[in-house]
Design brief:
The complex is a heterodimer. Chain A is an alpha/beta fold. Chain A contains eight helices and seven strands, in the order βαβαβαβαβαβααβα. Chain A has a single domain, classed as Spore Coat Polysaccharide Biosynthesis Protein SpsA, Chain A, CATH 3.90.550. In chain A, β1, α1 and β2 form a beta-alpha-beta unit. The longest helix of chain A is centred in the middle third of the chain and has 18 residues. Chain B is an all-alpha fold. Classes of the chains: A alpha/beta, B mainly alpha.
C-alpha cells in the first residue's frame, strides 16, 4: 500500500525541515512496522513569501510549489490531486509546522488499511491523555460549538472538528480532487463526507505546540470564523446525495 | 408617465445602448456577456417611446403607479444579474484554482526531472 503525507506549508521556513526530518527518521526507525507500506511525503508550498521554497529546493525535498497562493483548501487539494495522479492508496494530511506527531500516524492509517473506515480524523479530544497539547480555552469552546452543529446536521459526534491530521482512502482522494472547500475546509468536509455516507472515524493522536509559522485559523477568536463555518455547515446540511 | 420622465428615460437608454455597443466594438465586453444589457436598453427605449405599454403592464400586474412597476422590474433585473455574475465569478475562481494546481504540479515535476 502506498501512503502519501500531504504537507501544506505557508511560510514555514522555521519548521518545515524539522517536520520532514521527523518523517524520515520515523521511516528509518519503524521499518518493520511499516513493512507493507510505502510512505512518501509531498510538501505543498502555498506560494510562501519567505525562504520555504529555497530551503526545500536546496535540500532536495519532494515538493510542489504553487505558482500563486491558494489558501489552505487549495493547497491541500493540490496534494490530493497529486496523490490521485500517482495512484496512492491513502493520503494523510500532515501540518508543516510540527504540530502533528508522526508517531501517531498508524493510529489513523490502520483503520483504513483494515477497511474499518474510509476517512480517519486524528483527534486531540477523544482521549485527553493521548495528546500533550490541548490548545486554548477559546479554541476548545469554538471547536465544541462546531462539533455540536455537526452533530445537529449529521447525527454523528465528531470531537476534533478542526483537526488537520486526517487520513483518506482512495475513494475520498478522488472525491476531494473534484471538490474541496477553499476557506476553512476541515469542518465542512466532515459534513460533506457524512452526508455522502462515508465511514468517518475519529482516533486519538498526539499533537504538539507548533514550532513556527501561523495557524491557518488566525481569526479563530473572531466571530467571523464561527459565522462562516456555521453557515457552511448549515448549508451543507441541505446537501442531497447527488451533490 | 410625464413627458419629462419619458425624455429622461429615452436619453439614458440611448446613452446606455451606445456605451454597450461601443464597449463591444472596442473589445472591452463580449457580445455573449452583454446580450441582456442590450435587451434592457432596447426595452427602455421602447417604454419611453410607447408609455402606454408599461402603464398597461403595471395595471395588469396590480401596481398602483407605473413608476413602482418600473422600479420593481429594475430590482428584479439587477438581482438576477448579480446572481448570474456571482455564479460566473465562482466558476472562474474554480477554473483558475484548477489551472494553478495543475500547472504547479507539472512545473514542479519538470524541475525535479531536470535536476536528475
Amino acid at each position: 500500500m502506498k501512503v502519501l503525507l500531504i504537507i501544506p506549508a505557508y511560510n514555514e521556513e522555521a519548521s518545515i525541515l524539522e517536520t520532514i526530518e521527523s518523517i524520515e527518521n520515523f521511516k528509518k526507525e519503524n521499518k518493520q512496522l511499516l513493512h507493507s507500506l510505502t510512505l512518501d511525503y509531498i510538501v505543498i508550498n502555498d506560494g510562501s513569501t519567505d525562504r520555504t521554497k529555497q530551503i526545500l529546493k536546496n535540500h532536495n525535498k519532494a515538493a510542489v510549489h504553487l505558482i500563486q497562493n491558494l489558501g489552505i483548501g487549495g493547497a491541500v487539494q493540490t496534494g490530493y490531486k497529486y496523490a490521485f495522479e500517482h495512484d496512492y492508496d491513502i493520503a494523510v494530511q500532515f501540518d508543516g509546522d510540527g504540530q502533528h506527531d508522526i508517531n501517531s500516524l498508524l493510529e489513523i492509517v490502520q483503520p483504513i488499511i483494515d477497511n474499518k473506515a474510509d476517512f480517519c480524523i486524528g483527534s486531540r479530544f477523544i482521549d485527553s491523555t493521548s495528546s500533550g497539547f490541548q490548545t486554548t480555552y477559546m479554541r476548545r469552546l469554538g471547536i465544541r460549538i462546531i462539533s455540536m452543529l455537526i452533530k445537529l446536521v449529521t447525527k454523528e459526534k465528531i470531537y476534533d472538528v478542526t483537526s488537520g491530521y486526517r487520513a483518506a482512502n482512495k475513494n475520498i482522494i478522488k472525491m476531494f480532487c473534484s471538490r474541496y472547500p477553499v476557506e476553512y475546509p476541515e469542518p465542512e468536509t466532515i459534513v460533506h463526507l457524512i452526508k455522502k455516507k462515508v465511514r468517518v472515524k475519529e482516533c486519538p493522536v498526539n499533537m504538539k505546540e507548533r514550532m513556527g509559522g501561523q495557524s491557518s485559523i488566525h481569526s479563530f477568536k473572531s466571530v467571523k470564523y464561527m459565522i462562516e463555518v456555521g453557515g457552511a455547515i448549515l448549508i451543507a446540511a441541505f446537501m442531497k446525495e447527488g451533490d | 408617465m410625464t413627458t419629462i420622465f419619458r425624455i429622461e428615460m429615452f436619453i439614458v437608454a440611448i446613452a446606455f445602448f451606445i456605451f454597450v455597443v461601443r464597449s463591444i466594438n472596442q473589445n472591452k465586453l463580449t457580445l455573449k456577456r452583454s446580450t441582456s444589457l442590450l435587451v434592457l436598453s432596447l426595452g427602455l427605449v421602447i417604454f419611453s417611446l410607447f408609455p402606454k405599454l408599461p402603464e398597461a403592464l403595471s395595471i395588469f400586474f396590480g401596481f398602483e403607479t407605473t413608476s413602482n412597476f418600473l422600479y420593481f422590474c429594475a430590482i428584479i433585473f439587477l438581482l438576477a444579474f448579480s446572481i448570474f455574475q456571482s455564479v460566473l465569478m465562482s466558476t472562474q475562481e474554480e477554473k483558475i484554482k484548477n489551472l494553478i494546481q495543475e500547472i504547479s504540479i507539472i512545473k514542479s515535476e519538470k524541475e525535479k526531472e531536470n535536476n536528475r
